[in-house]
Amino acid sequence: MTESNESERTPVTVLDTTVLDAPRARTAALDAGYASVHLFDSVDSTTTRARELLMNGTDADRESLGELSVFSTLYQSDGRGRLARPWTAPPGACLATSIVVRPHASTEPGTRELPEDSYHWLTLVAGLSVVDIWRHYGAEAHLKWPNDVIANGAKGCGVLAQLVPESGANEGLRSIIVGIGQNTNMTAGQLPVPTATSLLLCTGRTVDSTEVLERLLVVFARRYRAFLRAGGDPEAAGGDPEAADPLTGAPSLLDAARAVCSTLGAEVAMSLPDGSVVRGVAEDMDAQGRILIRREDGTLAPYAVGDIEHLRPANGSYGDFRPAH
Length: 325
Prior knowledge:
Layout: H1 22-31, E1 36-40, H2 46-56, H3 59-64, E2 68-73, E3 79-80, E4 86-87, E5 94-101, H4 122-136, E6 141-144, E7 148-151, E8 154-165, E9 174-183, H5 199-203, H6 209-229, H7 253-260, E10 267-271, E11 277-285, E12 291-295, E13 300-303, E14 307-312
Parallel strand pairs: 1-2
Antiparallel strand pairs: 2-5, 3-4, 5-9, 6-7, 7-8, 8-9, 10-11, 10-14, 11-12, 12-13
Helix pairs in contact: 1-6, 4-6, 4-7
């Protein structure tokens, strides 16, 4: 038997988990209809960079963003979540992505103008996209109202949408920056809190974060354009053509969100902006995206803003969060 020469062996490609594969990500984004792609090895905040360009860039800078553009990195040093909470992680542990949506720049035939009062639904468009992706990798992912994705009982992703005014020739127009932070290759020792998780911990294997980004861009663009064609109506059929049933067609965005929202049916405590806390059972989500809570006094009330804690999930267990390690 002859041993093969070391130099003749096929080289093994080692996945670099600390930076994105720029050529691959750029190609995927352009193929999915994104006009502009901004990738960073490291950055203070993808959302900050996007906001600066929208508010302080030149008219040419803003026009280069088109209807959809993306800013993404595997390391940001000054990320922020809801209520300006710090959001940082070691290089390569999280995929931070900001998608800039400019509905006023749409050139797609057959679309209707998207009313500003429907922009908040883009948070759920992003959340549903992440649920799709994590389930593709085998994680048991669900939405937690209003802006989290949980998997195997812990938080793996947060979504934060901001309405940003443009300047220059576009003064008076507003765009949306949808910030999406996914824990991709975060280890148990890197978790910021015991109630967090990652794709690595859910699947037991290192994931290709560039592939996760590619999938996110494709699914988000598809769901967004379906929402645009529906004129921003979350109850209109066709929320995701890829999920269409041969007999009933594609579910609406609202029905798709209801189907994967673990908050519905759960006993919850809702902390409101005024400091008060409402307790009850989350029964439904309405066409404004509000959560409907059957309060302890028996009344059913809608809430658009607040931090929800799951006390008794719909499956009857006590607490849907558990340490991932």
